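Q: What structure does this chain adopt?
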Amino acid sequence: VTSDCSEASMYWSTLRVPVRGDDSGFSLTDRDQSPLSDSIKPVFKWDTYELGYRYNPGDSEVYYWALPDEFLGSKVGAYGGNLTVLQKAVFRGDPVQDSEVIMTGNGLTLHYGLG
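A:
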């Protein structure tokens, strides 16, 4: 603890990762971040510039997007900033009641949109 405080010389900026093709650094993972089968991987759609995954009939597991290395590590400079996630889901059947975003680090796990 100190009484000698001053303004930090840090600032935040927008981190954007363009998705251009299948080798974008994005991958899929499960809730526990366990390794998935090689057949479970995102596919880039050149006509819409979207990264997607199509569930196979009978799939019941929930998958999450794992972000590229640029988003990993210390992000103390992001303090006061925000995280914007754009997602689109086309599905049939009952919606899954689970977290939409899970952030893990430094021994903590934060859930957003827990159903």
